[in-house]
Design a protein that fits this description.
The structure is a homodimer. In chain A, the strands form 4 sheets. In chain A, strands 15-12-14-13-17-18-16 form a 7-stranded antiparallel sheet, sandwiched between helices. Chain A has helices at 2-9, 44-57, 110-119, 136-142, 149-152, 155-158, 187-191, 225-239, 251-260, 287-303, 316-327, 329-335, 351-365, 394-398, 401-414, 433-436, 439-452, and strands spanning 14-15, 37-39, 61-64, 82-85, 92-96, 101-105, 122-123, 159-165, 171-174, 200-207, 209-210, 214-222, 243-250, 275-283, 309-312, 343-345, 370-376, 381-387. Helix content of chain A is 35%, strand content 20%. The radius of gyration of chain A is 23 Å and the shape is globular. In chain A, strand 17 (370-376) and strand 18 form a beta hairpin. In chain A, helix 13 runs antiparallel to helix 15 (401-414). Chain A is built from 17 helices and 18 strands. Chain A has 4 domains: 1-85, Uridine Diphospho-n-acetylenolpyruvylglucosamine Reductase, domain 2; 92-210, Uridine Diphospho-n-acetylenolpyruvylglucosamine Reductase, domain 3, CATH 3.30.465; 212-336, Alpha-Beta Plaits (2-Layer Sandwich); 338-423 and 433-449, Alpha-Beta Plaits (2-Layer Sandwich), CATH 3.30.70. Chains A and B meet through helix 5, strand 9, helix 7, helix 8 and helix 17 of A and helix 5, strand 9, helix 7, helix 8 and helix 17 of B.
């Protein structure tokens, strides 16, 4: 098989030994797998040949992009597996500004897609922490979320067309740049978010948007979660689609950032409020109008007592500093001791009740554990993490992970939520799905998998057991 | 079987004879089918029982909502078929304003969903000509489009969760009101747009939006299609997400409206321009700001020569009059003699080239036929209809339908487009699909159908042969 693969992609692009090793684990060091080799095809036709070769030999195929995933979805598990690297599928094939679309190959870095759009005077709005190293193929495979979802949607909402290599090694030429197309079943949305288990996305046609003409960032100090939801509702009504981010941060998260990174400063006294929010307003007019709108909406929130204080970034540098506070939370959290992480979603209307009851249940079971809560309030998506109590060791906490999972995920379900909001399932949550999802839905998913990948060679052991 | 069905839904809700007859054809009079009976279940559990009864007896099931479809998707074709009416599944189950969601049953009229949202101070933005008589279930089954797609997307983009009865008579409880949920394959988007061929949607959780605080409508006279696209691009950049409609109309369509309905008036001389557009701007601020923005953006378009003239509605009544002009086009078209209709989509960047080359090809083949072109320019979606030449009879033209289809659909494909943009496939375009779609895609669609509906009893003969 290796000979066949070398003939397809060239010997230099079949990796084994030392060059294979770094691809066998995830960046968080949580998963360690094995594989026979990795291959780097440079065209959809070569991907199709690789898929057919693997199918003939019964070898599992594991697609991998930037390998920045959080759920082990790109880590191979089988000694016969072939890792399919999308690195060389990295062309921007087309930008059509009059149609507001860009067509890119799966191995393009998300940052490269953003940059190509910007160079054409457009915005590609998908934005997340790993954007400098993750690939758009990985974003599509996991239906990645990020900070701009409340305005522009998840990756699925940004995709119009796909090119996919099927498990049979055929190419579906579905790169349509159409806002309306009802010629049959929506195959596109099945592949998006299927984490490489149904086929390999090799390219996509994505939506572009006009660049905002002005942007304003504000940091808000909030007396309660209920107040945060009230400000969000006010901002939605007042800014309309101009509200492009609404990030929630518990006081402990910003206290940790300023403690571990003392060069970063909060614009408030450190104990001003129990909750903070980073709000971003994007305007299609000009700087003066953006400023006036922000003052109007925030002024009303302050007057209503929904916000205790508001700091508006006076410069691009200060806006970056506000975002930097938000983005530093995971690093500060790491310094506090490894946490038990949850990527949960609930309806925005249930956020406050969810946090209150889940915090209480955890404190009752494990007194003193710390609640590291932050995330995308506008989408009802929280990174609800549980850090060791002061004096508690990492290992001591991590031993409790199953019980902590039970409490948090049980509470998520009681509030009509999702146990995997934006990071996907991968290996991490595969065995939780049957417990928390509708049995009919699990059966439908298995039917789909069997229909599209009957030999079960596409990224086996991910999403479904 | 009829006894079983009566036991499930009650004898009064099993229709035959005279009460069945009107359900056996479409409203345009294009399709006439047959069926054994129609049933009106009033709960998802009853729908599931009906599905199981039909499965036991091998009877095809044809869901029907408002029966306003344009492609024969709701017309039964088999004497053993059971028509499943969603009429009694008509409850608004929940409105959650803090989460901006509404949960409704499939038989709710679209207008009822809009009204329920409005009563709660929110907007449900799906809007189309049949909204007073079509059902949200039909909108979901066909992934309906309409006039607000350039801002809010198609029906699929407005749905968060579904409740579906599978062909096995099980209920998938998928009514999630979540903006982010990556717990497996996106079943939701397979059912949406599948026209009842994979299961029966019984309820949906849909997105709501803030109501605009001010709205402005303008009618523009445009020197060319290229100019229309330029104004669209300018409006997108200048209004951002405030641009909620951009409807294109060829001069002949408005001339026909004012000819057949002389009480309607154009705000311009009748031969001002070859093209017109209806532009709608929705603002999250106030009337004064909306007016100022409109003047700024339209002023620039006039100055650049992209628009020859612009009439801004000065009142709600005038705005309605402008929309009434647009909505009267199909009626005026009907008076001109039955046309050969096309519901096509192409990238916005290809619209002008598509119209120019297709018009020329049709004139070369059938001199004198008239091009009744109007539609949703913002989505690249045109109703590109071909009316008889002056003096040509309807029958004479309709006999040429296969050749006209060939020219128009061939041109659509050459321009990277779709032959069924917003009306769906139904029976009308079923046999065209294999000709114009990727063979791999057709194969994937057949695999899906076989996997989810192995007995082929769900709306047979629609979408796929």
């Amino acid at each position: 098989m290796l000979e066949e693969l070398r003939a397809i992609v060239g010997a230099a692009h079949v990796l084994q030994g030392e060059s294979l090793a770094p691809l066998l684990g995830d960046w968080r060091g949580r998963y360690h797998g094995q594989a026979l080799a990795a291959v780097r095809p440079d065209s959809p036709a070569a991907v199709a040949q690789v898929v057919r070769a693997c199918a003939r030999h019964g070898a599992p195929l594991v697609p991998q992009g930037g390998n920045t995933g959080l759920c082990g979805g790109a880590t191979p598990g089988d000694a016969r597996a072939i890792v399919l690297l999308t690195t060389r599928l990295n062309r921007v094939r087309d930008i059509d500004t009059a149609n507001d679309t860009i067509t890119v190959e799966a191995g393009c870095l998300l940052k490269s897609v953003q940059d190509a759009a910007q160079a054409a005077g457009r915005l590609f709005p998908l934005s997340l922490a790993a954007e400098g190293s993750c690939t758009i193929g990985g974003n599509l495979a996991t239906n990645a979320g990020g900070t701009q979802v409340l305005r522009y949607g998840n990756t699925r909402d940004l995709a119009l067309g796909l090119e996919v290599v099927t498990p049979q090694g055929e190419i579906w030429h579905g790169l349509r740049g159409l806002r309306k197309d009802n010629t049959g079943y929506c195959l596109r949305d099945i592949y998006i978010g299927s984490e490489g288990t149904l086929g390999i996305i090799t390219a996509a046609t994505l939506k572009l948007y006009p660049q905002p003409r002005a942007q304003r960032t504000a940091l808000l100090a909030l007396p309660s979660l209920m107040a945060a939801v009230a400000v969000l509702e006010r901002a939605r009504a007042g800014f309309g689609a101009g509200l492009t981010a609404f990030e929630l941060m518990a006081a402990i998260t910003l206290q940790a950032v300023t403690h571990y990174f003392p060069e970063q400063r909060l614009p408030f006294a450190p104990d001003t409020a129990p909750w903070y929010a980073l709000l971003e307003f994007s305007d299609s007019e000009d700087e003066a109008h953006a400023q006036q709108r922000l003052e109007t909406v925030l002024g009303a929130a302050l007057e209503a007592g929904e916000a205790q204080d508001a700091a508006v970034a006076g410069s691009v540098a200060q806006s970056r500093a506000f975002w930097h506070l938000r983005e530093s939370i995971p690093l500060a959290e790491f310094r506090m001791g490894k946490a038990i992480k949850h990527d949960i979603g609930v309806p925005v209307s249930r956020i406050a009740a969810f946090v209150e009851t889940t915090n209480a249940a955890l404190q009752a079971a494990f007194p003193g554990v710390r609640h590291i809560i932050f995330g995308h309030l506008g989408d009802g998506n929280l990174h609800y993490n549980v850090a060791p109590a002061v004096g508690q060791g990492e290992a001591e906490l991590l031993a409790l992970q199953p019980q902590v999972y039970d409490i948090v995920h049980g509470s998520v379900m009681a509030h009509g939520g999702s146990i995997a909001a934006e990071h996907g399932v991968g290996q991490l949550k595969r065995d939780l799905l049957p417990r928390y999802k509708d049995a009919v839905e699990m059966d439908l998913m298995r039917r789909l998998k069997a229909a599209l990948d009957p030999d079960g060679l596409m990224n086996p052991g991910k999403v479904l057991a």
